[in-house]
Amino acid sequence: MTDTAVHGHDSSTGISNIKLGMWTFLGSECLLFGGLISTYMLYRGRVTGGPRPAQIFDIPFTSVSSFVLLMSSLTMVLAVSAAHKNEHRKTNLWLTVTALLGATFVGGQVYEFTAFYNEGLGFSTSLFGSSFYTLTGFHGVHVTVGIIMLMSLVGIFKRSAVPGKKAEVVEMIGLYWHFVDIVWIIIFTLVYLIPV
Amino acid sequence: MAIIERETEVVVPVTVTPTSTYGVLKRPVSATGWRAWVFTVDHKKLGLMYGATAMFFFIVGGVEALLIRLQLAAPNGKVLNADLYNQMFTMHATTMVFLFVMPMAAGLANYFIPLQIGARDVAFPRINALGFWLLLFAGIFINLSWFLGGAADGGWFMYAPNSGPVFSPTNGIDFWAFGLQIAGIASLTGAINLIVTVLNMRAPGMTLMKMPIFTWMMTVVQFLLLFAVPVITVALFLLSFQRNFGARFFDVAAGADPLLWQHLFWIFGHPEVYILVLPAFGIVSEVLPVFSRKPLFGYPFVVFSGAAIGFVGWGVWAHHMFASGLGPVSVAVFSLTTMAIAVPTGVKIINWTLTMWGGKLYFSTAMKFSIGLIVLFTVGGLSGVTHSVAPSDTQQTDTYYIVAHFHYVLFGGAVLGFFSGFYYWWPKMFGKMLNERLGGWNFWLMVIGMNMTFGPMHILGLQGQPRRMYQWTEARAGEGFFNLAFWNMIASIGSFVLAVGILLFLINVVITARNPTRAPLDPWNSRSLEWLTSNPPKEHNFDVIPTVHHLDEFFHRKYEEDPESHTMRQIATAEEIMAEQERNADKHIHMPSPSYWPIVVAFSVLVITFGMIFSYLIAAIGGVTLLFASFGWALEPSTAPESDFESNSSTPGTALDSVGNS
Known about the structure:
The complex is a heterodimer.
Chain A: H1 17-43, H2 53-56, H3 59-84, H4 88-118, H5 127-158, H6 166-193
Chain B: E1 15-16, H1 35-38, H2 43-72, H3 82-116, H4 125-144, H5 172-200, H6 213-245, H7 259-292, H8 299-312, H9 328-356, H10 365-386, H11 390-396, H12 400-430, H13 436-462, H14 484-514, H15 553-558, E2 559-561, E3 568-570, H16 574-583, E4 589-590, H17 597-614, H18 616-635, E5 657-658
Parallel strand pairs in B: 1-4, 4-5
Antiparallel strand pairs in B: 2-3
């Protein structure tokens, strides 16, 4: 019923509406993170009080949590592939694993924020503090929203009340998930790896 | 031209309405009364609601403008105090930009894009409804600040650090920032929806280069919105975090760079001015060919110049910041790009002029407004090019010269374009023609009023009267021709002439609504697909989805070229084409079904923003309802499933057609 690709004229591009909509949305998200990253890059060296970036970053720890997040992209691909093959159990399994890996990353971020705060970097401490927490916080919120969407998918699939084509929906959420991962690669490089 | 009174024939009802329930809540099924509007997902109803909302805020913003002009009419004005004056010009600009021009464009786009591309609705009907409700709530939210401690007072570009809590301690700027965030979500959802609609849902045969020009220009606008809105979102978040959570982004004592806000704001702000004016360009490009009895001159050039404006519009933002000391290289680069963007705009002006050249001009009110746009926008465009001369711009910065410039491009451009569209499309939207005699008065009063109001501001500005100054004194008014008192008075009188012109439009609307005469099916002998249906269009837009063979498809169904004389001869009337459509009507059309969720989601967002200002507990409640509503939304199919409908055994489905999926 809700499958729009039934009639040729419903999709002039051949891409379903929801997928094209997600691509469009992600285009917009690029500019959102672009603005936040620019703000951070402008302010990262401006520390009038409190710790400097090099003093608090724990590169090995963040590298591990970044690796976990990147692996979740792999499990997401497996989930999409399983959904296309109509393997429901496998789809649910990989969606759950993806959400767990994402949750591990967010947990790592919470731990990191707490550690930084205890070392003297508050949200209002310095321009570095404000822009660091804003940028990484926005990314963390995006991952969290992704986790909620993944878990909701699993729940909805269990009730088998999916409006639309299942694989298409999984793929759409997958697009979002990969985007959030790619953004993290950029953030990790610019924030953690390039010295001020 | 067929001016025949046409009785609506009784046709087999082809749109079926769901009768039973589905999802978390009972699905709304009312087809009449207020419920039919509040829970609707129909792009035409939403378009009209956008239009009505925008018109309301146009009046609000207009009253604010009149108060400003009353204050400045004479020296030492006493109408407003300095504080209230600051709020007044801030809210005038905010209302006109975000709550009038953008929603009006969104309304027209919503109404006409599906009709012009031969679709039955937009790609995401519920997201469409969500966008409207978010916008309405944003408007209400921003304006509530008047009654809750004072409105925003930092100017519409809200320069930091002047917008910090030290300099603006009331909640006004918080209301402004959160309100614009909501309006931003509305614009973003609208942009995604319309882009997908245009890319995915065109009628068979309609390639991109056969798309009506209004749809083209609106598509460029949606792409601008898609990429510009997130930038202002970032800026507004930084501002809110600074004001509410103690972030340091604009705190100069902590080493902050005040130019950060200016850059972020204008990276959004300059594409924004094309977001405001391109819809009007689209309307004019529809109206001029119809009333010149000629196709649009150089259609590909108009399309590509519109797209070029969309691209180059991203590279000119710093010309708003020439006075901030950017350095010679930046100033030189942005001067050049600013000169460059005049080229595609000039291409459009030439195309419009050549469309009229040698045409059989018919001066309807819509045509008058379009010609008015060409002339007055050109005036504003030329004063715009003067800003690319950086030394001269440094003199003009923050004077009334700037005010004159942007009112010529926005009033002379956007607003005249909208009015042209109102007169042209009114019979399509309401099935009745606006009074043309009153329309003439409407047009001339508006044009005279706007020139009286904004023309003198060029002189005032070059003489040095600053913007945002709440009083001026006789002692510094100057003498002779350049006397500030004289020109300020003229401008104030002009603003009331303008207001009378707009009042005449509203009177015209009321008179038209009471007039029982129905509009003919094709009153203007139009060219594009939206006229291939009844006035107002049926709920499902088209009985048969048209197959498109030409640019100006509707025209080519009415006329064909005589191979010997190479003139166009009529082969069918609009009535005949319509009757043909009704004979072949699809029997079984499922339209997207109404839904509670858009308004519930939008209201939850409103509750969250209230909570952000007054109490986090309220925000948490809003968050919970938002989550609940999102699940309700996700679990409810956009189009009610087959089992929800009464059995339609009498009309077995011949052409099952579902529209939209989110």
